[in-house]
Amino acid sequence: MTSTITPDTSATAVISVEEQQFNDLIEADSRIEPRDWMPEGYRKSLVRQISQHAHSEIIGMQPESNWITRAPSLKRKAILIAKVQDEAGHGLYLYSAAQTLGATRDDMTDALIAGKARYSSIFNYPTPSWADMGSIGWLVDGAAICNQVPLCRASYGPYGRAMVRICKEESFHQRQGFEILLELMAGTEEQRQMAQDSVNRWYWPALMMFGPPDDDSPNSAQSMAWKIKRHSNDELRQRFVNMLVPQAAVLGVTLPDPDLHFNEETQQWDLGVIDWTEFHEVLAGRGPNNAQRLQRRRDAHDEGAWVREAAVAYARKQSARTEEMAAS
Amino acid sequence: MTTPGDSAAEIWPLWEVFVRSNRGLSHVHVGSLHAPDETLAVRNARDLYTRRSEGVSVWVVPAAAITTSDPDAKGAFFESPAGKNYRHASYYSKSEGVKHL
């Protein structure tokens, strides 16, 4: 059997038994588990994707935690705290999944705070109004769900299982965001304006969350051959817009794309041109809040250093005491 | 391959988490976490894996303490049951139609 997932291997080259086993598992749509043999490229690619995903969840706590102290009611405050706690949890599921590939938590954290690791560029946008809590839930978490549901079937077992848990929790996030916007849209003229203004600011960045267009996405083909990724960026983006249009009608908000129109032929919503310069600028660290987000993560890491050190010292003391008692 | 979590570069070890969702059911593996000792591992497991009443009991086990079968020997190691379908009730078809069997 010639393999489609190792294009650099010539047809005559001998594939090792392990590699053949790996190829067969991928081919059969089965799962790869932590102690299985896997190509170095597969491992690297997964560590990169899972750790970037984990960093996004952790940095993603910041734009929302910003509103915890100013939530308009006790109920909304409790909901927002629960949501931000979920994001922390998602980051932790994912870091653990990356650790099963041999990555260490400390290395991943160091890469993030040193500014060497990437996270989703969406979290570099500011949240100046309460309506942004609604837009983040509806648009940002909505786009995340669209991206993540297919990842539940990713070929690497621990990643897929983490995604199943995450997706279950994200649906609460999306609905609570939708509800915030719905309530604002049923409010005063000023509140409706606040909701619309927020949707205007988040719509395009949310569409950019699916990544660059297919003809400019270098890692996609390999990732799809390995069945880590199941659909292309443009395919998922289209699916998302098709879902958004009727939802926007329920809310009574306008999507800020004058070229958005229904294509009778394809039965899809055709969208206008995305400003990819903005995407690349934010990715390159020149977004509105990049520096602030990283600085805050760095400060939290430094301020928590004594807690980590104390916990390790205590654990060492306890295990020494247990050994002593066992010896006597 | 090194055991996940068993690394000098890692200050806190990796733990595997098992949750019993209800009395009468087994503990089932739900994922891993990172903690300095067993006490904190149990507390972290509660916060991380049971925020929506998913469980009534939690086990944590250091990932490095788990012994597994060799994944490469998959075929040979689990070969023994092959061809022994007489170990299943469905092998015995002559009693079909007889009640309470």
UniProtKB/TrEMBL annotation, chain B:
Keyword Transcription: no
Enzyme's top EC category: oxidoreductase
InterPro entries reported for this sequence: PaaB (IPR009359), PaaB_sf (IPR038693)
UniProt-recorded Gene Ontology molecular function terms: phenylacetyl-CoA 1,2-epoxidase activity
Domain of life assignment: Bacteria
Keyword Cell membrane in annotation: no
Protein name: 1,2-phenylacetyl-CoA epoxidase subunit B
